[in-house]
Amino acid sequence: MGRLEGKVAIVTGAGRVGNIGVAVARAFLREGAKAVIGTDFRREQAAQIEALVREDGSPGSFVLMEQDVTSEADWARVVDTAIADFGQIDVLVNNAGISIHGGIAQTSLDDLRKVMAVNHDALFLGIKACAPHLASAVERFGGGGSIINNLSMASYMPNATNIGYHVSKAAGRMLTICAALEYGAQKIRINSIHPGVTMTPILREGLESYVAQGMWESTEAAEAALAAMNPLGIASEPEDTASAFVYLASDEARFVTGASIYHDGAIGLRY
Length: 271
Prior knowledge:
7 strands
């Protein structure tokens, strides 16, 4: 019996091969989840992701829906679909995120608001939309409902060249613990995971930006430098991070809420 046997999860930002959202969706299904509703603002890679799920041999269902996570109406549509098709929601993973590089001087207010909308406001909307259904999860599973926010090491590490991303992730950290206090009585656990250097498409795009600014000679040099920043001297793969999401989604974490899980190779010890 899998650790997530019978559970239904919504995972945002799960529409791009190689990212944490896809790794989380696959891990949930391998652990027996009844269904994972992945969402993203694009569906171009849906067939590739569905093929990966089939390769895993997971018996559960995977559905990829198009969603604007900053839209309250879109959240209602995703939730309604989950209830109509699968009858329940037990886990929400707020994973979608964007980054627009630049310090205060280089960042427009519109760009800052765009990043805040996806990286922070969408968490608020997701919690608000899913909580009424997650509250009933305790009737099915002893661990109750689970909400997991992917907040990155950026939430506690200052960065003068990526102001929007770091500020939005820090705001998400406070939202997480406030929500944990609010929804604890309903047996909804709300936690955050803070990945360190993880080789995802969004990270590689960021490194390309830094290379263009002359900070490193190549993306390979940038990856090596980032990996060397943590005591383990290695970078994480999305599959490594997915294991932490499985734990928080499972009933093993029934007494864990308001927690920040630093899945960062101890890079935070240097800050």
